[in-house]
Amino acid sequence: MHLVQQILFILCAGISVYFFSKKVGEIRRNIKLGKDEDLTDNSGARWKNMVLMALGQQKMFKKPIPAFLHLAVYAGFIIINAEILEIFLDGILGVHRLFAPALGSLYAYLIGFFEILAVLVLLACVVFLIRRNVLKVKRLNQSELEGWPRNDANLILVTEVVLMSLFLMMNTADQVLQARGVEHYTLTEPFWISSNFTGMFAGLSDGTLIAIERGGWWLHIIGVFLFLNYLPYSKHLHIVLAFPNAYYTRLQPQGEMANMKEIQNEVLYMMQPELAPPSDGSQPAQQRFGAKDVMDLSWKNLLDAYSCTECGRCTSACPANATGKKLSPRKIMMDTRDRLEEVGKNINANKTFVDDGKSLVHDYITVEELRACTTCQACVEACPVGIEPLSIINQLRRYLVMEESNSPQEWNLMFSNVENNMAPWKFSPDERDKWAEEMAAEA
Amino acid sequence: MHIKSMAEYAANGETPEVLFWVGCAGSFDQRAQKITKAFSQILDKVGVKFAILGKEEMCTGDPARRSGNEFLFQMMAYNNIQTMNAYGVKKIVTACPHCFNVLKNEYPALGGDYEVIHHTTFLQQLINDGRIRLKEGGEFKGKKITYHDSCYLGRGNNIYEAPREVLQALDVELVEMKRCRTNGLCCGAGGAQMFKEEEAGTTRINFERSAEAIETGANIIAANCPFCTTMLTDGVKNKEKEDSVAVLDIAEMVARSLA
Q1: Tell me, what's the ipTM?
Q2: Segments making up each domain of chain A, as ranges
Q3: Quick one: how many helices (H) and strands (E) in chain B?
């Protein structure tokens, strides 16, 4: 019986790790479809960002209530996962509570601590479910979440509640079995939470309890394996990617827009032809200015997209969204990920990307959304994991204006004024210092 | 009062302490011209040796870059950097946070390396150094005033305190809006929105922001950006509060409070 369980466990673990690694490989490949961007500088500042932002959740605390609830789930997740190690080794070795004898009374403290965290996680997830579905907090109920994203969020929360309940149920049954001296159930000191519920199981037979304990154990670990494989398809991937994303987040002032070296050089060679490199007769490679599709974005933009957990703090801070415009920075990130996943599937099917007649701009993100951005950086500031929706918006705007000449008439006028009058309005450049002349006259 | 240009300084073989980058709004927009004049007055009064580029100044290219027209931005940047490098410009002060951001953060990559300072920071330094002397009990003393963080000074460059310190020096009663500092709400003009109609929505961004400012009960909305000033003034008018709520640049407030 134990051997069968052992083999089954190893099989489940193997399958789940295999599929997880495969999907992780695909995500890695997809992110690398993005353009190169060297973000290896200043590792000191980058580690600091990772520690403060990802590990320390610094930016989460701009909204204290969800921040504390999230902290409970996060701490619970990380710490209770230490228990997964024991479960995992028990499963492989066919033993029960491997660490209990070695740790002695400390073991019960540890499990008790895990149980307290489990209760906190459970409660926090229930509150999160209420916020989403009963209180209908605005940022958790906006139009871009309709359908799958909403179900994704609820599914994760329900799964966490179930996993935590199974963990507690398993421990309760275990302790009743321990007390009855059933073989195989290592005697430990009482666990802080589950020991209070042993009465509930007192009337049950040994067999039933073993079934509950084993069932709880199996469902818990299968739940963990399923969750592992669900993760890369879900917004919940942020639990992993928040760390690299915070590490690679921008260090320059938020106001600074990325330079386009290729255009800088083009202007330079136009103004000072003597600086242009001698032509070797070959045509320069066809280059696209700005971004039309996900492959035109930088790999960091794509990592951003996979790191987004759709919390909507960006969108709730966006002045355009707050005043009813179609722009939602969160949707920019969701669209980028959706399109990237679509491109990834295309590559899976065809070995290399075969043009599908679609692109990120137009098919996913509309011109109207892009036009509404004031570049105020509130979305960038709001993101707890250092995602930059503005960077994607800027690159798509560059494509629209420079490749499609797609800009509103007012902007075309502004461009022509800047070019001809050196100011965005139609004033004569000769009048630029008229105010100074007036001041001289006034005096 | 005669405001000298870089060309005049160069002709006399002199260099000014600082170049005052006026910007397009400060040069041409009637409302913003008042800010330009107020700031020049302060510099003149306290004896800062400053110059302007005059007719040689061009748009930094900010609205072109933010709307996506990188070519035009690079053209403007090239010309401005040529001009300033030819004069050997070292230090720039500007009353526009958009110009400030581009000059400070974006020109260095293109060969334009200057010490760039926003006028509110400059004013704060002049006050701290005792060069600006303010009236005891000036007209803003004890007045209820709210301060609007512009995006490109605040979030863009993390400057939140210098403008507030200037207001404190004026002895005002500073009341903060709900969304302030890193959470400050945009006035709606950035990203070249100033030069086009807003997309369809439920309200205008400047109406939303002005309403928030009015709700504080302040009689003056202090700003640090000519575009914010315009947007907020329009928003106040929309609420028909122009008789009780004024939108002023911090430089205008300092100019009126000089001893």
Answers
A1: 0.97
A2: 2-31+63-247, 288-401, 408-443
A3: 11, 8
